[in-house]
Amino acid sequence: WNSSFDPDSVDDIQYRIEWSINNDFKPLLKRIISDTTFLIEQIAIDNSHVIPRLQNGQIVFWRVFATENSGLETVGNSSENGWCFRNEFPIEFDVYPAYPNPFNHTVTISVALPEAGAVSFKLYNVLGRELFRSTQDYSIGTHQFRIEADKLQQNLAGGLYILRIKFGEMEKVQKVVLLK
Fold first, then answer.
1. For residue 42, what pLDDT is reported?
2. Residue 79 clears pLDDT 60, i.e. is over it
């Protein structure tokens, strides 16, 4: 939604977003935020049960109220407040096959993250010696990381290398081949 404008410009505007799987908003979940972007990650199925992840094809109804410090509240005027949710976010940590493999100068590693967090990328030779290390903070979703072999401090020879990708307590290992 678009941000609200307060002509007094003294009060901070906050938004109360409410959402439900029913168009009468019962049961209801709500959150107060100061931004105009919000990711719905859970739904209430009744007054005592909350589902942490939306299912594919789930219709979700939502509405937004703009409030200011004085208590004045305005409801958004959007008539389109229901949508069919397609889960585009990963539900588990995964690492897709590195490509190209074999590679010449650059290899790309794609990771799927079910939540935001730090991902550690390490490259080892076949003797187990660590040659490269990087940690990146990513949001929920699928991300790509590139290792450029010709820019590493060590001059890598052509051959087999091991990639270790770690997210939280989970770790995946892949073999990659550098062609020279």
1. 56
2. no
Q: Which of the listed residues 32, 64, 85 is the one where a domain comes to its end? A: 85
Q: What is the pTM of this model?
A: 0.54
160: domain CATH number? 2.60.40.2550
User: Is residue 141 domain-resident?
Assistant: yes
Higher pLDDT, 87 or 33: 33
Q: Which of 36-50, 80-94, 112-126 ranks highest by mean pLDDT? A: 112-126
Domain range for 132: 94-178
Residue appearing with tokens 């307590």: 169
**Domains in the chain: how many in total?**
2
Residue 156 and residue 76: Cα distance in Å, rounded?
58
Report the alpha-carbon distance of residue 119 to residue 114 in Å, rounded. 12
In the listed set 28, 57, 85, which residue is the last one of a domain according to the structure? 85
On the question of pLDDT at 172 being above 80, the answer is yes
